[in-house]
Design goal:
twelve-stranded mixed beta sheet; Aminopeptidase; alpha+beta; 37% strand; 268 residues
């Protein structure tokens, strides 16, 4: 008989982190966020784990450093009280096939909106175009580039606190393209584990689109991930066809779908 239990993780409990680590090693792509958030951001992360015989068969992970918080739901969630991690405004990631039943659960506790289907795509050493020169015009951004990166985001109307921009340059891999000494296209990592890097923040200034710059910066970050021994994972809207074409050209292949949905808890 399976020994089934529900575990709550917050604050970096060493024994539970070891459990998460063992499960991550068996399935790095699906457990990368769980391991990363609970170890790198223990004070702003918590999780509910459904465990059977030392195997995490389902989890609800909340990362609440910024508003809205992000809640990732994965696996078998029967008997998992997901309302415990839904007490704040949230962006909820739900497995595509489970969304109808999860939506009914969400509606018990609040308002659901802005539903969109997201593709999970992965690049591996076997799919990446190693003979391409896509990434050659990119440069690795360093903390000394904080002013250039801050100016870039300001110029496209994205307000990011300077300390967050600097943190990204210190803690993550960021690549960019400069034209006439102005940063015009960027991509970065959001999560880095030994086996999975999550790539995102791909953006090109509107005045410089159509030149292949998004492909270049994505390829640069992806290449560094693969050279480190990790897979590269990213998420893209199902209807963002230009971005999907770019990502396919640098080796990304579809591995799954999720629904991302906004959730506002009902005032009790």
């Amino acid at each position: 008989m399976n020994a089934e239990k529900l575990l709550r993780v917050q604050g970096g409990d060493p024994e539970l982190i070891k459990l998460v680590g063992r499960n991550y090693l068996s399935d790095p792509v699906n457990y990368a966020y769980l391991l990363y958030d609970l170890t790198v951001y223990p004070n702003v992360s918590k999780a509910l784990l459904r465990v059977e015989d030392d195997v995490i068969v389902g989890y609800a992970l909340a990362w609440f450093r910024f508003e809205p918080q992000t809640v990732i739901l994965y696996g078998e969630l029967n008997e998992v009280p997901i309302y415990e991690v839904l007490r704040l405004k949230s962006l909820v990631w739900v497995p595509f096939n489970e969304y109808p039943s999860i939506k009914c659960e969400l509606l018990k506790y609040g308002i659901v909106g802005n539903e969109r289907v997201m593709l999970d795509m992965v690049a591996t050493p076997d799919t990446f175009p190693w003979d391409s020169t896509y990434a050659d015009e990119c440069v690795r951004l360093r903390p000394s580039d904080v002013d250039a990166l801050q100016e870039f985001w300001d110029s496209v109307g994205v307000r990011i606190p300077r300390e967050v921009v600097l943190e990204a340059l210190n803690d993550h891999v960021c690549y960019g393209v400069f034209i006439n000494d102005k940063l015009v296209s960027v991509a970065r990592t959001y999560v880095r584990t030994p086996h999975v890097w999550v790539v995102g923040g791909v953006f090109t200034h509107p005045n410089f689109r159509g030149r292949g710059l998004a492909k270049a910066v994505t390829a640069a970050v992806t290449r560094e991930a693969l050279l480190s021994g990790a897979y590269a994972l990213l998420h893209v809207r199902e209807d963002n066809y230009p971005a999907i074409r770019v990502y396919r050209r640098v080796g990304y292949e579809l591995i799954g779908r999720r629904v991302w949905v906004s959730f506002t808890p009902r005032v009790m």
